[in-house]
Amino acid sequence: AFFWLVSLLLASLIWFVSVHLSDREDAKLQYGLLVFGAAISVLLQETFRFAYFKLLKKADEGLAMISEDGRSPISLRQMAYVSGLSFGIISGVFSVINILADSIGPGIVGIHGDSPYYFITSAFLTMALVLLHTFWGVIFFDACEKRRYWCLALVVASHLLTSGLTFLNPWYEASLVPIFIITLCTGLWAFFTAGGSFRNILKCLSCKGGD
Q1: Which of 17, 61, 77, 129 is the most buried (most CB within 10 A)?
Q2: What superkingdom does the record give (predicted)?
Q3: Are 42 and 163 spatial neighbours (Cβ–Cβ below 8 Å)?
Q4: Which CA distances in Å does 125 have to 39, 99, 141, 163?
Q5: Which 3-state string (H, E, C) describes 81-113?
Q6: What gap in Å lies between CA 189 and CA 196, rounded to an integer?
Q7: In this predicted model, what pLDDT tens digit does every residue of 123-175 receive, in sequence order?
Q8: Mean pLDDT, 10 residues at a time, the chain of 211 residues
Q9: 3-class DSSP state for residue 68?
Q10: pLDDT at site 111
Q11: Cβ pair 151, 139 in contact under 8 A
């Protein structure tokens, strides 16, 4: 979570400086800088995810050295899951904190013709982002470990696409539906990356243990 916060701080600084060096009266330019800031934020998040992977690899080597059997007590998949979940939770907190502050009032959502589904769609979007960061963490760490650079590129591209789709709001149908499709596909990808299979799903549903 700390690594995600640092990436957000750097992205905010870049956006802040860009805005103050530009013409604030130019609405199109300011909107373009907002899109630019979102893209920079995504790239910095993925950069810090990679930095965290390298840090955990070093820590993993140290744990293996001091263990009795010469193996680390924590697997790479466990670290990937926890890392992704931490990124997702802190991302979700920052996504929803301002929305919760606005919900205190004054006023009523939709009274000026805005969508009355603002809060519920924001909640679903936050949920999708938390899940996506968890899935991205699993896929990203596995790709780094196995040097599958095309997987890394797909993670970054899907992150950029998801961030870009949020600019379609308040046209929620055009943003939420594709984002949840991306979430479902990424979740299946992360499931199989982590060693899952349809056979395991059937065993889970039938409450049967493995060998």
Answers
A1: 129
A2: Eukaryota
A3: yes
A4: 18, 12, 24, 11
A5: HHHHHHHHHHHHHHHHHHHHHHHCCCCCCCCCC
A6: 10
A7: 999 999 999 999 999 999 999 988 899 999 999 999 999 999 999 988 888 89
A8: 92 92 86 92 95 86 67 77 92 85 72 76 92 95 91 95 91 91 95 85 72 51
A9: coil
A10: 66
A11: yes
Amino acid at 107: G
Long-range own/partner contacts, residues 78-84 (CB < 8 A, 24 or more apart): 79/141, 80/137, 80/138, 80/140, 80/141, 80/142, 81/134, 81/137, 81/138, 81/194, 83/49, 83/52, 83/53, 83/56, 83/137, 83/141, 84/133, 84/134, 84/135, 84/136, 84/137, 84/138, 84/140
pTM, two decimals, is 0.86
Q: How many residues does the chain have?
A: 211
CA–CA separation, 66 and 4 (whole Å): 29
Those residues with Cβ within 8 angstroms of residue 11's Cβ, 6 or more apart along the chain or in another chain: 37, 40, 41, 44
DSSP, res 166:
G
Contact yes or no for 63/73 (Cβ under 8 A): yes
Would you say 87 and 133 are in contact if contact means Cβ atoms under 8 Å apart?
Answer: yes
As a whole number of angstroms, the distance between CA 44 and CA 163 comes to 13
For residue 70, count other CB atoms closer than 10 A to its CB.
8
